[in-house]
Specification:
The chain is mostly helical. Helices cover about 70% and strands about 0% of the residues.
Length: about 170
């Protein structure tokens, strides 16, 4: 089996798991962001990368710095910032604007969907109680937003454009 194909599968699995963890627990474990970062050199060295390594490091640094500001103003959580920066490492500077734009658009749609679901949260809670399932925190009136979902969706939408997959 092609090692680059396995790398693709592992990358998608890490992203999907982080999205799911954020949706369920409103928390993205640090180990998942670290795993995404540690997988990067494997993909970089195993592919015919058209972009310089430093483009990816700069992309990571820019997103991390912006994310720290968003965290300081309580717009994003720390897990979201680390996850977003780890994924920006993969985009490089060329694909970073598309990733940020798509992630933002998906995030806006996600917020609108959550606002709509919060209006019917009592009915949802009643249905979930029948199966002994607790209403997720993000459906509560003052709950947060699991932005890891839109962050992950952003990178999955641009996934095939990541420079690693071109041969």
């Amino acid at each position: 089996m092609d090692p680059l194909f396995i790398t693709k599968l592992v990358f998608v699995a890490f992203v999907a798991l982080a999205m799911l963890m954020d949706l369920i627990q409103m928390r993205i474990p640090n180990i998942l962001s670290l795993a995404v970062i540690l997988l990067f050199p494997v993909a970089y060295l195993g592919s015919n990368m058209p972009t310089p390594f430093f483009d990816h490091l700069i992309s990571f640094g820019v997103v991390l710095a912006a994310g720290i500001l968003l965290f300081a103003f309580r717009i994003l959580g720390g897990g979201d910032v680390k996850f977003m920066a780890s994924l920006a490492l993969w985009t490089g500077l060329d694909l970073l604007p598309a990733f940020i734009l798509i992630m933002s658009l998906v995030g806006g749609l996600q917020v609108l969907l959550i606002w709509g679901l919060r209006k019917i949260a009592p009915q949802i809670e009643f249905l979930l109680a029948k199966f002994n399932i607790i209403l997720p925190e993000w459906l509560h009136r003052n709950g947060g937003v699991p932005y890891g979902v839109s962050i992950g969706a952003g990178v999955l939408i641009v996934f095939e454009q990541l420079p690693f997959w071109s041969t």
